[in-house]
Design a protein that fits this description.
The protein is mostly helical. The chain contains ten helices and three strands, in the order αβββααααααααα. Strands 1-2-3 form a three-stranded antiparallel sheet, with helices on one face. β2 and β3 form a beta hairpin. α2 packs across α3 and α5 packs across α9. The N and C termini lie far apart (about 65 Å).
């Protein structure tokens, strides 16, 4: 302090109440797909837990973006672990696709799921499976799925496809059983839902003073895998 200078000059706030403390801003929720890794030099890979007891993983890729790698992760995980799989897009999987993946797993010596999702042949192989199911004379274990297609989703199929049948109907059957996560609009809804849940959890953690807070984790960080809505109407 300069000798002789008024004390107020050194402490401009002297005599005034201290400013009210401001709460630090909420941290921005961090989103990361489960089991998805960037590849040095570009591209993405799926790192999939296929045997929890042995902590065995399979790495699949490369993929052009994180969305494709996340979907590949889910397909491999569901094929190996079924309902135990930690999936990024659980609601995007129609029961028919889950059955297809289980079938691929049971025919492991003949069909390699990792190869299917990595080399770009998965969609065509799945479409072939769907057409074969629709063409069965006796639907057997697929009876419920096929009846749901014709009875509950007739309006979605469309009158033209129902009346014409044949390839047009088969095309609609394939289209209506595709994985929803291939649609950017569905992914946008899903990511928006995940962001809302993460924000709500952050605010709840702040409101409780951080007591008992514990972030969910996956093979590579927080993900939507543990936050799938259980009863939710999906666009």
């Amino acid at each position: 302090m300069i000798s002789g200078a008024p004390a107020a000059a050194a402490h401009p706030q002297a005599g005034r109440p201290p400013p009210a403390p401001t709460a630090p801003p909420l941290p921005v929720p961090r989103f990361q797909y489960a089991g998805v890794r960037p590849i040095p030099g570009g591209g993405w890979a799926a790192h999939v837990l296929v045997d929890p007891e042995r902590q065995a993983y399979r790495t699949v890729g490369p993929f052009p973006d994180a969305h494709a790698a996340a979907l590949a992760h889910d397909r491999v995980a569901i094929a190996f672990l079924g309902d135990r799989a930690r999936a990024n897009f659980r609601l995007a999987f129609h029961p028919m696709e889950q059955r297809f993946l289980r079938l691929c797993r049971t025919r492991d010596g003949e069909i390699d799921v990792c190869t299917l999702v990595a080399d770009g042949t998965y969609e065509a192989r799945y479409a072939t499976f769907l057409r074969a199911v629709l063409g069965l004379e006796l639907w057997g274990e697929y009876l419920g799925v096929v009846l749901e297609f014709f009875l509950d989703r007739a309006a979605e199929i469309g009158r033209e496809a129902l009346e014409e049948g044949g390839e047009k109907l088969a095309d609609r059957f394939v289209e209506m059983h595709r994985n929803k996560a291939v649609d950017p609009r569905w992914r946008a809804w899903h990511l928006g839902w995940v962001a809302a849940v993460q924000k709500q959890r952050m605010e709840s953690w702040r409101g409780s003073g951080g007591a008992g807070a514990g972030g969910s984790s996956s093979e590579g960080g927080g993900s939507a895998g543990a936050m799938q809505p259980q009863q939710q109407q999906v666009p």
